[in-house]
């Protein structure tokens, strides 16, 4: 199942603990705290291999709303969705990591951007070579649009690269830029 981000959703970190010991950490998008817990439980149902032993003493879930820098922008989300469609053999694994991703850095290089991603707490993706994707988008402020690649490190999504076709990207705020037509490049 591919999760679709909707405008207004927030990013939550859900931490399950027993007697002060972390059992599992999940990062995901949801409309509110109840939705975050519900999505996390759905993920456990879909992927029982990541669930934990719930027997014994009380297991508590602690929620933390993440700051905007830690969440994907609309452009980043759309690009990752489009890339997942290009690799159907690992689309579910990509969606699982994408739902738990945390943005740790963004850099506008002047010829595009790099967004550094952290999903180190997710299961690695196996059987694909990096980079993934060959998608493009029409981006406001760029006559020729942009292309995008997704780089993996040790089976985890690590860096999203956006590149222009010879145009300067200085002055473009990629967290808020308007875009359309994210699709495979032709």
What topology does this entry show?
Blueprint: E1 10-18, E2 21-30, H1 33-46, E3 60-65, H2 74-86, H3 91-98, E4 102-108, E5 112-118, E6 132-139, E7 146-153, E8 156-164, E9 179-184
Antiparallel strand pairs: 1-2, 1-3, 4-5, 5-8, 6-7, 6-9, 7-8
Helix pairs in contact: 2-3
Name the descriptors.
19% helix, 186 residues, 3 helices, alpha+beta, 6-stranded antiparallel sheet, 3-stranded antiparallel sheet, 9 strands
Would you write up a description of this structure?
The protein has 186 residues and is an alpha+beta fold. 19% of the residues lie in helices and 38% in strands. The protein has three helices and nine strands, in the order ββαβααββββββ. The protein has helices at residues 33-46, 74-86, 91-98; strands at 10-18, 21-30, 60-65, 102-108, 112-118, 132-139, 146-153, 156-164, 179-184. A six-stranded antiparallel β-sheet has the order 4-5-8-7-6-9, with helices on one face. The chain has a three-stranded antiparallel β-sheet with strand order 2-1-3. Helix 2 packs antiparallel against helix 3. The radius of gyration is 17 Å and the shape is elongated. The protein starts with 9 loop residues before the first strand and ends with a strand. The mean pLDDT is 84.
Q: Largest sheet at a glance?
A: 6 strands, antiparallel
Average of pLDDT: 84
Return Rg in Å.
17 Å
Q: Runs with pLDDT <50, length 5+? A: none
What is the string of SSEs from the N terminus onward? Answer: EEHEHHEEEEEE
Short description:
The protein has helices spanning 33-46, 74-86, 91-98; strands spanning 10-18, 21-30, 60-65, 102-108, 112-118, 132-139, 146-153, 156-164, 179-184.
